[in-house]
Amino acid sequence: MSDTRPIGIFDSGVGGLTVVREVLRRLPHERVVYFGDTARVPYGTKSNRVVQSFAVQDTLFLLRHDVKMIVVACHTASSVALDHLTQLFRLPILGVVEPGVSAALKATRNNRVGIIGTRGTIHSKTYERLLKERRKEVTVVATACPLFVPLAEEGWLDGEVVRMVARIYLDSMIRGKVDSLILGCTHYPLLFPVIQEQMGSEVVLIDSAEEMAAGVEERLKKDGIENRNSGPPEHTFYVSDIPHQFREIGERFLGREMESVTQVDLESADLIHPAEIHDARVK
Amino acid sequence: MSDTRPIGIFDSGVGGLTVVREVLRRLPHERVVYFGDTARVPYGTKSNRVVQSFAVQDTLFLLRHDVKMIVVACHTASSVALDHLTQLFRLPILGVVEPGVSAALKATRNNRVGIIGTRGTIHSKTYERLLKERRKEVTVVATACPLFVPLAEEGWLDGEVVRMVARIYLDSMIRGKVDSLILGCTHYPLLFPVIQEQMGSEVVLIDSAEEMAAGVEERLKKDGIENRNSGPPEHTFYVSDIPHQFREIGERFLGREMESVTQVDLESADLIHPAEIHDARVK
C-alpha cells in the first residue's frame, strides 16, 4: 500500500533544487534523489539532439537508484526532450512545461501570456504550442533571455546592470500587454523582484515549481505509488561537478542546508547502458 | 624532412578559433585539426578535476587524428590542466598561458600587469605564479569576469550594458594602475574596443593568440616537425554540438568561412581509451 521508492528529479545544474524544495514542502513523506548535471551545464544554449542525449543519460542515472517517477526540473530538457523520454521509458516522467502552462491559463484574464526562457526553450516553441492547444484564443509573447542565467549565477540579483538587462529583454512583454508571465527557467525565480518591478505589480509571474509539486502529488495518487511511511525520509543529491561556489548557490536554491552531496564520476555516468540499470551501482 | 601531420587545437567551444586564425596566418603550410567541446562549454565555471578530465578526452580525440602537437587554446584548460596533460602524454603540448605571460612582460613598463579571465583561470593563480616566477618584482592584479563570455556570445559587444559591466569588473585594474592587461579568455578579444575604452589608450591589451602562433612556430622548428609541403592544406573542424547560432559565432571568431564542420557523436568521443588511439576512427 506504500511505495517507498524515491522520486528522481534532474536538472542541468542546481536550479532544479527549487523544484525539490516545493516537492519536499508538499510531500514530506517522499524521498528524493536529485541529479544536477553541473559538469555539462547549461543545457539552454545547446542543440535539441545533445539535450535529448543528456536527458537520457540523466534518466538512466536516476533509474539506477530505483526511482518510481522522474521529474524533469529543467525547462530546456522539458521543452525539447520530454517526448523523447516518455517514448523511451515506461515509468511516469513529468516535465515543468505542463504545470507552468496550467498556471498561466488559470492566471490570465486578457488571454495574453508571456514566456521567457533559454534559447533552447524559446526556440522549441513547446510552451507556445501547448498554450495554444489548451486555449486557442490565447496570444503568446516569447523571448529568450540568455543573460539571466549568468547574472543569477554571478549573484547580481539587484542593481543597475540586471535592471537594464531586464528592461531590454522584457520590453516586448510590456508592449505585448501580457498579464501573466511564465518564468520558463529554474534560475529566473532568483530574479523575481527585478522582473516584477519591470513588469509592474498587476502582472502575475508564474514560477512553475509550486505547480509542479502539485502535479507530482496528483500523479502519485493516481498511480497509487505514494509513500505512506512516516519517519523523516533521507534525500540524496548527486552532481557531475562540484565547482567552487556550488554549496552557496545550491543552498540559495534549495532554501535549506544540503546535508550531503556526492559527485558522480563522469566516466561511469557516461557509460550507463540500459542493461546495467538494475545491477550497476555508481561508485 | 617534412612532417605533414596536422596540429591539433582544442578549446571548450568556438573561442579557440581565434588561435586557429593566427596559426593559419603565420604558418600557411600547416594543417589544423580543431576540436571545440561545444556540448560541455563552458569550462571556466567548472572544477579543476572536471576540466582536467575533459582536457584528457579532448587530447585523446585529437590523437586519433594523428596530430604532431597539441595546442590548448582554452585559457581555463591551459591554467588548470596543462601540467596534467604534459605529464600524461609524450607529444609536445602548448598552452596559451605562457605566451600571454611573455607578451605582458615585454609590454609592461611599470611592472604592474593585469589578468582577467574565467573563475577557473583566476582561481588557479597560474598566470600570477608564472608572471612572478619570470619576474619577481612584478605586481599582478587579477579579476574574474564571468559575464564577459555570455555577453560576447549574446553578441552584446557594444552599448550601455557591456560598458557598465566592464566598468565594474575593470575597476580594480584601473585602481591597481596596470599598464598591460592580459585578455585571459578566448572570448575577450571580441570585447577589445569596450575594454580598451575602459582602460584608456595607454594600457596595452594582450591577446595571446598571436603570441601563441609564434610559440607554435618556434616549437615546430626546434623539434624539426614543420610541414614543408606546398599546396593548400586542408583543415578539419570537429565540435561536440552544433547549436543554432554556431556558424555565425564561429566565423566571427575564425575571421573566415568554415568550409565544413563535423559533429562528433558524444558517446563515441566519451569512450576513447588510450588503447584505441591508433586504430579507432570517429564515426
Provide a descriptive summary of the structure in words.
The structure is a homodimer. The first copy, chain A, has twelve helices and ten strands. By secondary structure, chain A is α/β, with parallel strands linked by helices. In chain A, the strands form two sheets. The first copy, chain A, has a six-stranded parallel sheet with strand order 4-3-1-2-9-10, with helices on both faces. A four-stranded parallel sheet of chain A has the order 6-5-7-8, with helices on both faces. The first copy, chain A, has helices spanning about 15-25, 50-65, 75-90, 95-105, 120-125, 125-135, 150-155, 160-175, 190-200, 210-225, 245-255, 265-270; strands at about 5-10, 30-35, 70, 95, 110-115, 140-145, 180-185, 205, 235-240, 260-265. The first copy, chain A, starts with 6 loop residues before the first strand and ends in a 13-residue tail after the last helix.
Q: Pick out the low-confidence regions of chain A.
A: 269-283
Most residues in contact: chain pair: A-B, 36 and 36 residues
Strand content of chain A: 15-25%
Question: What's the number of extended β-strand segments of chain A?
Answer: 10
Distance between the termini of chain A: 32 Å
Please outline the major beta sheet of chain A.
6 strands, parallel
Number of helices of chain A: 12
What shape does the CA trace of chain A take? globular
State the helical fraction of chain A.
40-55%
Q: What's the alpha carbon Rg of chain A, rounded to whole Å?
A: 18 Å
Question: Biggest sheet of chain A, strands in spatial order?
Answer: 4-3-1-2-9-10
Order of helices and strands of chain A: EHEHEHEHEHHEHHEHEHEHEH
Coarse structural class of chain A: alpha/beta
**What do the pLDDT scores of chain A average to?**
91
Oligomer: homodimer
